[in-house]
Amino acid sequence: MGSLPQNDVKRIAIVGAGPAGVATAKYLLAENHFETVDIFEQQASVGGAWNHTDNPPPSVISIPQTVPFQPLDDPVWYREGEEKQPVFISPVYDDLETNIPHFLMQHSDMPFPSGSQLFPPRESVSQYLEEYAHEISHLIHFKTQVLDVQLLNSRSDKDTWLLARRDLVTGRVFKSTYDAVAIASGHYTVPFIPDIEGISEWNIEHPGRIQHSKLYRRPEAFKDKKVVVVGNSASALDIGAQIGTVCRHPLLVSIRSASDFGSNIATYKEVVPEITEFLTAPTAIKRAVRFADGRIEEDIDIILFCTGYFYSFPFIQFEKELISDGTRVRSLYQHMFYINHTTLAFLGLPMKITPFPVCESQAAVVSRVWSGRLKLPSATEMFHWEAEEISKYGEGKRFHTLVFPRDLNYMNTMADWAMHANPDLGKKPPRWSHREAWMRERFAAIKKAFAEKGEDRHNVRSLEELGFDYDAWAKRQHEERSVL
Asked: Are strands 337-338 and 332-333 parallel, antiparallel or unpaired?
């Protein structure tokens, strides 16, 4: 087991130039300690999952897909002028809007442009991330796919990591050694499609009718079709609302539990239980499924699974030790540090969070630990932290799912920890006050009020326009306490 890193970490590699990777680079540079910070990004631009892919080709997604251990994605090549660009399919669809108001979503050192839509469209987010990354763009090796990260040497006082990557344009493979590696590659690559009785046979009988939201782009393909949407995440609700404008009614929405993002009662849809069986030949019923309440629906045109993704790191040599069934990453302290070798850190793993500021708080801690300005607990203490989290939230996906107020508490705890180092050095992470906590608690209600504006939502610029006024609320609270 590698020792805790001291100030001998000088060379660092970052895998991924999405929001987490770029934020990590900024915090590392602010330490004025490291000799090398290299960022490797397989896309041709920054943004990570916010890179939009128009008309993605049908990809090979196993149905069902219950195993997280998949090979590295191959790029799809698009021509831009005289050049061919490697593109990796992301889950961002045409009319995606954030589910977080921009002034809470934004990075601490760069607000969204004045006059931005309250919940920005994906084009605005992509442009925002391009501008955010501008000052560190010289560190990014674009069109470069990381092939392998392995521990080359582990002495009592120092780890050495060997990183192999391929230039996707030339095909050449390069190798370099680093003292530490930050993994910021996201978790929207390997879709999860559950193994439901009869699903494999049904898919063979009716190819192309079972799909995953990773390939969804626009609702027109669902026009006049009988559709079942499976899932109740934010994307499931949003995609369902889009499809509901064109599909045959009612849109069937299959869920197991209530959504963390609230519910919207709509005339175009009907909520049904989870699917328990795909009915196949020799039954006389065509294209049918059975739900948990025994109900059977037939003549289904498309079943769209909005069931999320596995954690997957095919470029890490010991991936199977890390992710097991793909629902969480094992042996991590505070959702970041690989306890066995703390010179390997993961940024942006938690779910149901406000990702940009949370990733900043993580980056603040990682940068200070690797520069030697913060100390980690002993390995025993870190494993004890993990065991306690497992006892509360289990071994599965709830481990990294920081539903409010866990996300708020986590971000502020990481910010406070980072500031235990000399606060006059390095980059200061964001820390939310009662005002931001009040807004965060009301995300679902705010987004619902925003969506109910219809096309007029594009003109909404503030919470107050939707009836959410923190100052007025705080004043009422104060007056009520005064009366008591």
From this structure: antiparallel
Dihedral class, residue 315 (left if φ above 0, else alpha if ψ from -120 to 50, else beta) = alpha
d(CA 467, CA 460): 11
Digit-coded pLDDT (tens) for 96-121 = 999 999 999 999 999 999 999 999 99
Strand partners, 337: 333, 345
Counted residue by residue, the chain has a size of 484
Residue 286 phi/psi, 5-degree rounding, is -100, 135
Using a 10 angstrom Cβ sphere, with 0-12 exposed, 13-18 middle and 19 or more buried, the burial of residue 407 is buried
Alpha helices (H) in 33-121, listed in sequence order: 102-105
Tokens 């931001």 appear where? Answer: 436
Residue matched to tokens 């943004």: 47
Number of other CB atoms surrounding residue 467 within 10 Å: 10
> What is the DSSP track for 108-138?
TTBPPPTT--SS-BHHHHHHHHHHHHGGGGG
> What b-and-e string marks burial along 109-125, b requiring 16 or more CB atoms within 10 Å of the CB?
eeebeeebbbbbebebb
The pTM of this model reads 0.95
Helix or strand holding residue 390 (H, E)? helix 379-393
Q: Which residues contact 384 (CB under 8 A, 6 or more apart)?
A: none
Task: State how far the alpha carbon of 452 is from the alpha carbons of 209, 263, 265, 458, in Å.
Answer: 31, 12, 11, 11
Pair of tokens at residue 396: 């599965």
Alpha carbon separation from 261 to 301, 445, 478 (Å, rounded): 27, 8, 29
DSSP structural state of residue 432? -
Tens of pLDDT along 233-277? 889 999 999 999 999 999 999 998 765 555 556 788 999 999 999
